[in-house]
Amino acid sequence: MTQSIFIDGAAGTTGLEIAERLAGRSEFSLIALDEARRKDADARREALNDADFVILCLPDDAAREAVAMIANERTRVIDASTAHRVAPGWTYGFPEVSGHDAVAAAARVSNPGCYSTGFIALLAPLVRAGLLPADWPYSCNAVSGYSGGGKALIERFEQDRDIAWRGYALTLGHKHVPEMQAHCGLSVAPLFTPAVIPAHRGMVVEIPLPLAAMPRAANPDALRAALAEFYAGSAIVTMGEAPASGEMLLRGSEEGGDQIELFVFGNGDGSQARLVARLDNLGKGASGACVQNLNIMAGLPETASLRL
Ligand SMILES: NC(=O)C1=CN([C@@H]2O[C@H](COP(=O)(O)OP(=O)(O)OC[C@H]3O[C@@H](n4cnc5c(N)ncnc54)[C@H](OP(=O)(O)O)[C@@H]3O)[C@@H](O)[C@H]2O)C=CC1
Ligand SMILES: CC(=O)N[C@@H](CCC(=O)OP(=O)(O)O)C(=O)O
């Protein structure tokens, strides 16, 4: 039987990419609101309650408002915004880390933030295995393509070609920090330094580790082996090959995709390591993860219509 889907915020960056991925899927039918009605509260309320699955691609306040409009037990929700990522009653939509069964059974799924996806993919399995401490003050440095900031940041970067790097969250209160801390089980909030670069899409998230100074920390080879074992069998989370050239590149022309690649680099004596994740902020960082969660919730193969 065909299941109906309403993407609230379908005209935005994340919503458009989800619709592209779902085009041609016979298992789903899309409920669409035309341009004149896509922000009309009554039209949205009707669509939100008619759909089997709702995917929210909205700013946080509008996402909270949309959830409050759902007045039936049947409609299941995937929220791409930050509104519900540490909220009680919501399942964190990172199936590799939260568990596929939990996502499959959930009525309310919060899609992880793009930076958080890289951070949690790297750190959660290692802390859980006791190979890195849960009580260490981790740092995370990251760069994102400008599509991570939605329509407004895309317009800004495409109008001002002179911006070569944009550091932000300078007062250290980035909205992804609570989910990073909660879903890695850390007792101390990580210190997070994000920046935007003049590429449309793509991101690199890095956790530098002064292993020799850390209590209960394994060596880089053990960390790499543990991540490879944890994600063995996943077509989406993969281990990258150490580049023979000695450098990693993110190219502005890259088309992106729904995989995430993980790397563990270490120095000769194993006293320092760099955990690095490379992903597409619009892929596993947003739309690809929404479609993966939708597939799992609908009981379908998790990689259907993903860009692998
Ligand atoms: N871009 C990314 O890489 C990622 C984004 N996200 C999250 O996904 C969500 C969507 O982000 P993104 O697609 O980038 O943002 P965009 O700004 O590109 O799109 C948001 C869309 O929501 C629409 N909208 C705003 N308010 C309402 C409302 N009250 N009712 C109906 N529609 C409304 C906007 O309309 P209009 O077109 O008129 O402005 C716009 O089309 C956000 O919460 C974002 O944080 C999550 C992970 C990564
Ligand atoms: C480059 C850029 O601005 N990125 C966004 C995060 C994108 C993302 O993951 O969004 P949500 O957490 O809202 O879902 C930011 O840092 O606010």
Question: What share of residues is helical?
Answer: 25-40%
| Small-molecule components bound | NADPH dihydro-nicotinamide-adenine-dinucleotide phosphate, N-acetyl-L-glutamyl 5-phosphate
SSE order, as H and E? EHEHEHEEHHEHEHEHEEHEEEH
CATH class of the largest domain: Alpha Beta
Q: Any idea what the radius of gyration is?
A: 19 Å
Features:
alpha/beta, 308 residues, 32% helix, 20% strand, single chain, EC 1.2.1.38, Dihydrodipicolinate Reductase, domain 2, seven-stranded mixed β-sheet, six-stranded parallel β-sheet, cytoplasm, N-acetyl-gamma-glutamyl-phosphate reductase, 10 helices, Rossmann fold, AGPR_type-2, 2 domains, 13 strands, binds NADPH dihydro-nicotinamide-adenine-dinucleotide phosphate, AGPR, binds N-acetyl-L-glutamyl 5-phosphate
Please describe what this structure looks like.
There is one protein chain. The chain has 308 residues and is α/β, with parallel strands linked by helices. The protein has 10 helices and 13 strands. The chain folds into 2 domains: 3-112 and 286-297, NAD(P)-binding Rossmann-like Domain (Rossmann fold, 3-Layer(aba) Sandwich); 114-281, 2-Layer Sandwich (Dihydrodipicolinate Reductase, domain 2), CATH 3.30.360. It has helices at residues 13-22, 41-50, 60-69, 95-98, 100-105, 114-128, 150-159, 177-184, 220-230, 283-297, and strands at residues 3-8, 28-31, 53-56, 76-79, 91-92, 108-110, 139-145, 166-167, 191-197, 203-209, 237-239, 260-266, 273-279. α1 (13-22) packs across α10 (283-297) and α6 (114-128) runs parallel beside α8. The mean pLDDT is 97. Bound molecules: NADPH dihydro-nicotinamide-adenine-dinucleotide phosphate and N-acetyl-L-glutamyl 5-phosphate. The site of N-acetyl-L-glutamyl 5-phosphate has 13 residues, from β9. InterPro entries: AGPR, AGPR_AS, AGPR_dimerisation_dom, AGPR_type-2, NAD(P)-bd_dom_sf, Semialdehyde_DH_NAD-bd. This is N-acetyl-gamma-glutamyl-phosphate reductase. Keywords: Amino-acid biosynthesis, Arginine biosynthesis, Cytoplasm, NADP, Oxidoreductase.
